[in-house]
Design goal:
The chain contains 4 helices and 8 strands. By secondary structure, it is an alpha+beta fold.
């Protein structure tokens, strides 16, 4: 699986731009990448939210696996990475991080926060569309709304980049890429636990749309079992 790279930051309620660095930590501690901060008690609400992510049902073209969570963003964090796979090619990839601060966070307006990075390569015609950033942002908000999810404090950036090759690399065709960095606060339900499974499904809908897949047919899903890491994929 081609993991989405880049540093995540949610210290001010949103994401860094592509050149940014992780903001100074509000919370100190070493995250174990599987649900909390080493040496602290994991809150039941966070445990329930993580278990819902692990049990979510998603379309089979999307491979999902747990990965090490970023440090210093919150007392408790859990991270997933995913790729939209077609044969041996990754059409899009991304990372979704669940953050939890039991004491609440002023910028989040809640105790949970979802932070994401999604990226995909584009056809030249699409990359040249001046409305592309607005369209990509609407894909994110539309994916959440399509599943009836309530959320607050959305924040993010949409970045497109083009690469042109010269000299010894001149045989390579030019390439364009879109990158969506965003964060939002999921509404907390019974017991203070957000519907993280539904938020994960909506995030995968975004991944599929960025990758150019058609909408999933009814029943086109499989249980996410967090499979073993795939080898490097061509892009």
């Amino acid at each position: 699986m081609a993991a989405a790279q880049g540093r995540l930051s949610d210290g001010a309620g949103g994401m860094d731009d592509a050149r940014g660095t992780e903001e100074e930590a509000r919370h100190k501690g070493s995250h174990d990448g599987t649900g909390g901060t080493g040496g602290s008690t994991v809150p039941p609400a966070f445990t329930a939210a993580v278990e819902a992510l692990r049990a979510a049902r998603l379309r089979p073209q999307i491979e999902v696996e747990a990965t090490r969570a970023p440090q210093r963003l919150a007392p408790h964090a859990y991270a997933l990475e995913a790729a939209v796979v077609d044969g041996d090619e990754d059409l899009a990839d991304g990372r979704l991080v669940l953050l939890h601060d039991p004491a609440g966070h002023d910028a989040w307006q809640g105790t949970f926060r979802l932070v994401t990075l999604v990226r995909a390569e584009l056809e030249p015609e699409m990359a040249a569309d001046p409305l592309l950033p607005d369209v990509c942002w609407s894909w994110l908000t539309g994916a959440l709304q399509a599943r009836g999810l309530t959320y607050g404090e959305p924040s993010g950036t949409v970045t497109r980049a083009s690469s042109h090759y010269f000299g010894g690399l001149s045989a390579r065709p030019s390439a364009s890429q879109i990158e969506i960095r965003a964060s939002w606060t999921p509404r907390e339900g019974l017991g203070g636990v957000p519907d993280t499974a539904a938020h994960l499904a909506s995030w995968c809908d975004l991944l599929a749309q960025v990758a150019g897949l058609p909408p999933a047919a009814p029943g086109d899903a499989s249980v996410v079992t967090l499979p073993q890491r795939r080898g490097p994929q061509s892009r």
